[in-house]
Structures are given as structure tokens and as C-alpha cells.
Design a protein that fits this description.
single chain, 366 residues, alpha/beta, Rossmann fold, 7-stranded parallel sheet, 6-stranded parallel sheet, 41% helix
């Protein structure tokens, strides 16, 4: 059974599709995922390293400010539509799964107009343009944040599922906090460990505030794991010290999560899903330039649920960072309450649940 996955442009749209595809294969080895992506997206680098067949098409986003560039979008869409037809005619898929981004739109449109069952997975609390439009045609919509449903278009038979975001779940059993701390060179007991990172590429704004804060001296009962991003590492590597570990990138990141008591990060959908799954209370600093300011929507949703603290980037200085950290260190009950609220929102087995529902739905439609 062939299942086409369409989504990409960014890792936040591509990696959920990969997680669901792998869960499908674990569930039924006869399922054959096939990925559709954009030549200009992250998938051109990621998909060749995976186990799945794929096709990269000349897909482009809608250019809202540079309208003249939309001729690329239209020209690319025409050639991609023809290629999609070839792929579908070679073996008609049982379903098309869209995970958002401009790389998903055309494949979802093809499925909707050719009677192929389609499913949508939306990662954020403020859904993207593609998933907002195609949700009305979907058999099921899988929500990373339940708040997204009120902004989606409901089809006559569309089922919305509060599935959470598909991530690689924490290992079972988890490594002990003591072992993880020892691996980082921290004392096994006493104090707290703070994890700071601004995504895989790092964050200039976050790094600048952290740099000035570390230079002042971190609290005596705190240990810090700070991931700067590869491009910024050389600038900040000298901040490595007895209680501060500076890394370019955290891979595998589970080694850092296992040692962490609380975190300061961006509020991308996959980052927040992982933090909730690991039971780590976060201080969220949204990327203000994210599309439709969706990271702020994510941070606000989690703060309202009691699972996070939201700090706008504009207000993040070394002084404010120090104030936040000391405030949380002095209130362990608040960290515990945030972790407990986050646990209620955590969906570590989201990929397995989504895969199971897709298989059941396809069986009913067969």
C-alpha cells in the first residue's frame, strides 16, 4: 500500500511526516511511504539520507510582498501537477498525508480533485495557510495543539483529533537524571540544570542575552547547557566553564533533555512537543518573524495552560534573563506545576496514534 507524504520547505513540516511514515512502516511493513517535496526546501538535503523514495518538484510559496515572483509559483505548479499525475498513475496511493508548508499544497489539491483520501497534520496552535485551506477536504486532521481547530475549516465528515505532534519519544526506560548529569560533568545531585537553545541554527537574540548573562556570573546553584548553533559557536565557545557547557549543536538532544530541570527555548511546534514529552518546564521566547507569528501563539497557548512561561524576545535582556532564572530557582513549586500541566498536554506516542488511525481509515475506505 502506497501512502504519499507531502510537506516541507522547513524541518518543522518535513520531520513530522517522516515520524508518521516510520510509524506506519513499524505498524505494517507492506506500507510504502513516498515523499513529495520542494527542490528549494530542506527536504532536498534530508530526504536523500532517509530510507524512503521521493520526488522533488519545482514548488514555490506564494510571494505576498514580491508579487512578480508568483510567476515562478505558477510555472512550477504546472510542471509539478504533471509530475504528480505520473506518480499517481504509476501506483494509485491509498492516501495522501499533508504536513503543511508550501510543499504540501499541490499534492493535497491533486488528491482532493482526484478522489484520493487525504489526511492533514497541523503542528502549530495557529495553523498554516495550507492546512487551513485543505482541512475541509480531509478525512482526519491531526492537531499538535487543540487550539488550532477553531481556525480550521470543517468539512462535512472531517474528524479533528487532538493527537499532539509526532516526535521521537523519550526512551523507555529513561536514563536517570544522575547518570545524565554525570555525563555532562555536573554533580549528580544538588542545584538545577538549565537548557538553553534557539533551534538547530541557533538564535542571535537569545545568544546575545545569554552571553551577557553568563559574563555576569550564573547563580551558584545552577548548571547550564547552552547550544549556540553551529554558525555562532566560535563566538561563544570561550564561555565554557565549570558550570556552563557550550555546544554548537545537541545531537542526540535526548542526552541534554535527560539532565535538564527547566529550559529556555524558542516555541516551535516540535521543540515544545519534545519538552512536554520529557516533562521539562520551558521558558519560551518566540521567534518574532515566524510566519503569522505562530510561535507566539504556541507560547501563549502553553502559558495559558500553565505549562510554560512566555517571554517576548523584545524584552529579553541579560538582566531580565537573570531575574527569570532566579525567580524560578526560588519557586520549585512553580516549576513542578508547569511540568505537571505540561504532562497533561504531552503526546509522546503521537506518531503511533496517527499512523494507526490512517491505517484504520484506509481499511474502511478500501
Amino acid at each position: 500500500m502506497k501512502v504519499i507524504f507531502a510537506g516541507g520547505g522547513t524541518g518543522g513540516h518535513l520531520y513530522p511526516g517522516l515520524a508518521i511514515a516510520r510509524a506506519l512502516v513499524r505498524l505494517d511493513a507492506s506500507i510504502q511511504p513516498f515523499f513529495i517535496g520542494a527542490r528549494r526546501g530542506i527536504e532536498r538535503d534530508v530526504l536523500p539520507e532517509t530510507e524512503f523514495p521521493f520526488a522533488l518538484l519545482d514548488l514555490h510559496p506564494l510571494y505576498r510582498r514580491q508579487l512578480w515572483n508568483n510567476r515562478k509559483t505558477m510555472r512550477g505548479a504546472a510542471s509539478a501537477w504533471y509530475r504528480l499525475g505520473e506518480i499517481v498513475r504509476a501506483e494509485r496511493p491509498a492516501a495522501v498525508v499533508g504536513t503543511g508548508g508550501y510543499a504540501a499544497g499541490l499534492a493535497l489539491a491533486y488528491a482532493a480533485t482526484h478522489g484520493v483520501p487525504l489526511f492533514v497534520q497541523e503542528q502549530n496552535s495557529y495553523p498554516g495557510l495550507t492546512t487551513r485551506f485543505f482541512s475541509r477536504y480531509a478525512r482526519e486532521v491531526y492537531l499538535g495543539y487543540p487550539e488550532a481547530e477553531r481556525r480550521m475549516r470543517h468539512g462535512r465528515g472531517t474528524v479533528f483529533v487532538d493527537s499532539g505532534n509526532p516526535i521521537h519519544p523519550p526512551p523507555n526506560p529513561r536514563p536517570s537524571r544522575e547518570e545524565a548529569r554525570r555525563a555532562w560533568g555536573f554533580p549528580e545531585r544538588g542545584g538545577r540544570v538549565l537548557l538553553i537553545y534557539g533551534g538547530s541554527q541557533g538564535s542571535r537574540a537569545l545568544n546575545a542575552a545569554v552571553d551577557a548573562w553568563v559574563a555576569r556570573g550564573v547563580p551558584d546553584d545552577l548548571y547550564v547547557i547552552w547550544a549556540t548553533g553551529k554558525a555562532n559557536f566560535a563566538e561563544y565557545a570561550h564561555r565554557e566553564g565549570e558550570r556552563v557547557r557550550v555546544r554548537a549543536y545537541l545531537s542526540p538532544i535526548g542526552e541534554a533533555y535527560a539532565a535538564t530541570d527547566f529550559a529556555m527555548t524558542r516555541s516551535g511546534a516540535m521543540t515544545t512537543a519534545e519538552l512536554l514529552a520529557w516533562g521539562i518546564p520551558p521558558v519560551l521566547v518566540p521567534l518574532p518573524t515566524a510566519a503569522a507569528d505562530h510561535q507566539t501563539a504556541n507560547a501563549v497557548a502553553l502559558e495559558r495552560a500553565g505549562a510554560a512561561m512566555h517571554v517576548p524576545q523584545a524584552g529579553l535582556t541579560a538582566e531580565r534573563l537573570d531575574e527569570i532564572v532566579r525567580e524560578l530557582l526560588a519557586a520549585p513549586e512553580r516549576l513542578a506545576a508547569m511540568a505537571a500541566a505540561g504532562k497533561k498536554r504531552a503526546r509522546p506516542e503521537a506518531a503511533e496514534e496517527i499512523a494507526g488511525r490512517i491505517v484504520e481509515a484506509c481499511a474502511r475506505l478500501a
